[in-house]
Amino acid sequence: MSGTGTAATPPKRRRGAARERLLAAASRRFYADGVAATGIDTITAEAGVAKMSLYNNFSSKSDLVMAYLDARHEEWLALYRQRLQGARDGRDGVLAVFDAYADHAAGAYEHGFRGCGLLNAAAELPAGDQGRTAVRRHKEEIESLLAGHLDELLPERPEDARAMAEHLAYLLEGATARAGLDGAGTRLERARRMAADLMDRL
């Protein structure tokens, strides 16, 4: 305890707070400006921490990029779980995935919506980079979520459910790419309506 009677902040807690500020700053800059264009100095300046603090929390910029990719996916999963709470059946579950994409697109981004942050980052990373593997894994998880909801909708037609999951994943990612070019989520809303129409025809 200090002479003023105020307990000092434990070092572990300070490191945790610094890590959160660094990851938040990196997330803003990577999405707004790109991974390659964002240097360590820019991130530490925006986070308000010393450069050494970054290396105390992340082994390298690549490690920070990996943390960003995982955090952005977890951010989307939280939106999806929130939407899923109102789902009554497999059809609603599929639409919850589309709604979560639209919610993510509606975020308060510095330069507006620029498309999927994961795919944007992956496009900048070299072949074989662990970040690209992480993005592929995240996208496979989303297609698997769609497939699970469609299995519920088509319990006697597993092959049709898998094929439709792939179809809807393409629709979702294509709409996201176009929405990123538009800087708005309108195409995601239209993609949701298309998905609903496709399921109604099953």
Task: List the defining traits of the structure above.
202 residues; mainly alpha; 0% strand; disordered N terminus
Description:
This protein has 202 residues and is an all-alpha fold. Helix content is 74%, strand content 0%. The chain is built from nine helices and no strands. It has helices at residues 11-33, 40-47, 51-57, 61-84, 90-105, 117-124, 130-153, 158-182, 186-200. It is elongated and about 55 Å long. It starts with 10 loop residues before the first helix and ends with a helix. The model is unreliable at 1-8 (pLDDT under 50).
**Proportion of residues in β-strands:** under 5%
Terminal-residue CA separation = 67 Å
Oligomeric nature of the chains: single chain
The number of E-state strands comes to: 0
Q: Can you give the mean pLDDT?
A: 93
Radius of gyration: 20 Å
Main pleated-sheet profile: none
Number of helices: 9
> What's the SSE pattern?
HHHHHHHHH
Unreliably modeled segments: 1-8
| Structural shape | elongated
Structural class: mainly alpha
Q: What percentage of residues falls in helices of 4 or more residues? A: over 70%
Give the arrangement of secondary structure elements:
Blueprint (H helix, E strand, L loop, with lengths): L10 H23 L6 H8 L3 H7 L3 H24 L5 H16 L11 H8 L5 H24 L4 H25 L3 H15 L2
Helix pairs in contact: 1-2, 1-3, 1-4, 4-5, 4-7, 5-7, 5-9, 7-8, 8-9
